[in-house]
Amino acid sequence: MRFHVLTLFPEAFGEPMQFSIVARAVQREQVTVEVADIRDYTHDAHGTADDYQFGGGHGMVMKPEPVFEAAEAALSGYTEAERNAIPVIFLTPQGELLTQKLVEELSAAPAITLICGHYAGADERIAEGLATRQVSIGDYVLTGGELPAMILIDAVTRLLPGVVGSPESVAGDSITTGLLQHPLYTRPAEYRGLAVPDVLLSGHHAEIERWRRRKSLERTLARRPDLLQTAPLTNEDLQYLYTLGYACPEPGRREHDAQV
Ligand code: ADE
């Protein structure tokens, strides 16, 4: 997977890409992160990448020309057919929400171009005429698209074949399963008066799986009840949720009922 990042702050991508799993994936050449400085594509001696808004208003707006040209340069080594398969993502709070489903979809692309917005926003022609998708990482506004781009790179990278140690650890992730993950414990069995639940020390695998499933359901109900609308749930799950006071939608009303 090749990530092409277009940013006004290329130095932001130095350190974060140099630790842990993403760094290892870079070392093993499973991914490359190629960072282009949008300012290198400006047309004046001052490297002006932003300008006042037409129509008036607070805040500067990113100019279109340097961003289009930086994208063209980044993608110049690809054939037209390859370019057509490469999503060009503009990171903006106005975008569709980044979900695990979208991350999975993106992980199948041969390369991804990421455009990091800054200032009050970017000229709309970047979204209209250059980006193929606009993506937000959540309903909050950051100072720029650099952190969102890194989050997307991290989330996509860990799904690439061979990047994370065991495929099971990816498959069992929170959200991927449709539910939040159950609690995890390691040694010591007791720490500062906090004990690991007995069932996990019992060696009884069926009981452990049942406990984990129930904890996932409890957690999801408490923290993200919206996920229960689409999570694949068995009759046993629904019965347990019922004991927790979950007012289960009528049969057939949940999106996933057909598959249960
Ligand atoms: N730029 C600023 N805020 C953002 C967000 N929430 N998601 C993506 N890009 C952004």
Give short descriptive properties of this protein.
about 260 residues, alpha/beta, five-stranded parallel sheet, three-stranded mixed sheet, 10 helices, 10 strands, about 15% strand, binds adenine
Report on this structure.
By secondary structure, this protein is of the alpha/beta class. Helix content is 33%, strand content 16%. The longest helix has 19 residues, at 205-223. The chain is elongated and about 70 Å long. The two termini are 35 Å apart. The model has no long low-confidence stretch (mean pLDDT 93). Bound molecules: adenine (ADE). Adenine (ADE) binds at residues 91-93, 117, 136-138, 140-142, 144-145, 148.
User: Which range does the strand content fall in?
Assistant: 15-25%
Spell out which ligands are present: adenine
Structural class: alpha/beta
Helix percent reads 25-40%
